[in-house]
Amino acid sequence: MVSAIKLGVERQQIARMLFAAATDHRYLDGGHTLDFTNKALEALDAVGWQNAASVLTSLVRGYASAERKEESNAWRYPIDLVAILEKAFERLDSASAKGEEKRGSWTDKERLVEVLLGEDPQASADSLLEALGNGAAFEELAATVTYAAALRIAQFSTNNDFRDWNTAHHSFTFAHAVESGLRRVPSPLLLRGVFDAAMTVYLNRFLNVPPARLPEPGATVAKPEELLAQLPELLDRQQQVDEAGKLVARYRVQWGEFRPITGNARKITVA
Q: Are 143 and 235 in the same domain?
């Protein structure tokens, strides 16, 4: 890594190298490895890539020693998720090539989210490949999985054990890091992370049994930005999860960036 930086390898190529390393194994360190990689690159962007060698070499230990989910019982039994992923990766190039001429025309996000939140990991992998072949851009596919991971959080009941929260939010931060990385560099190797994230969404389904009700946005306000000023006070008090959710929903819906799920838990409306 130091050699690449000193030789002047362009930043995009360095990012590709790092993201490839972070996705060579499944869901390294519960998603932290890729998340840290993305944050390191974002931090360097903010400071004009000062001290890049020190920052990026700090990631190397994580690539070398992180826990690999192909060694995890949950990813192997009762369904071998790693085998599903390996077969899907063999089809990635052909699916991508098939959808190249239709890139930007994919409109089936709602159906894909419904599959991702379902009970069949093979269907999730197949649907992601199908979407790719039907013209979904890499970042679109990643954003859809990120949305599904966010819904796991939104439907996370406070009756769950507090430690389960880490399980739900790590899936989301990992999925978001994959999405951010693909917006930086549309790397076919990083695309593997989209499929890893989809498997975590599948594994987290028990956290939504039963699913928490999503907040209703309620009445609109004249100046939605003023709602944000109320948020810190809610976050500073205990047992304000529902109230904070309602406030955020009101803010988002007024800016046209949020539409709630309608109907039952399998009826999805994707913004």
A: no
CA distance 42 to 48: 10
Q: Is 72 helix (H, G, I), strand (E, B) or coil?
A: coil
On whether both 190 and 228 belong to a single domain, the answer is no
Please give the residue range of the domain that contains residue 137.
2-208
Provide the domain count of the chain. Answer: 2
190 and 222 share one domain: no
pLDDT tens for each residue of 49-102: 999 999 999 999 999 999 999 999 999 999 999 999 999 999 999 999 999 999
DSSP 151-183: HHHHT--TTS-TTHHHHHHHHHHHHHHHHHHHH
Q: How far apart are alpha carbons 75 and 151 in whole angstroms?
A: 21
Within 8 A by CB and 6+ apart from 141, the residues are: 128, 131, 132, 191, 194
Residue-wise pLDDT for 186-233, tens only, equals: 999 999 999 999 999 999 999 999 998 888 777 777 788 888 888 999
174 plus 257 within the same structural domain? no
Q: Angle at which helices 192-203 and 109-116 pack, to 10 degrees?
A: 50
Do 235 and 200 belong together in one domain?
Answer: no
**Pair 16, 193: CB distance under 8 Å:** no
The verdict on pTM exceeding 0.70 is: yes
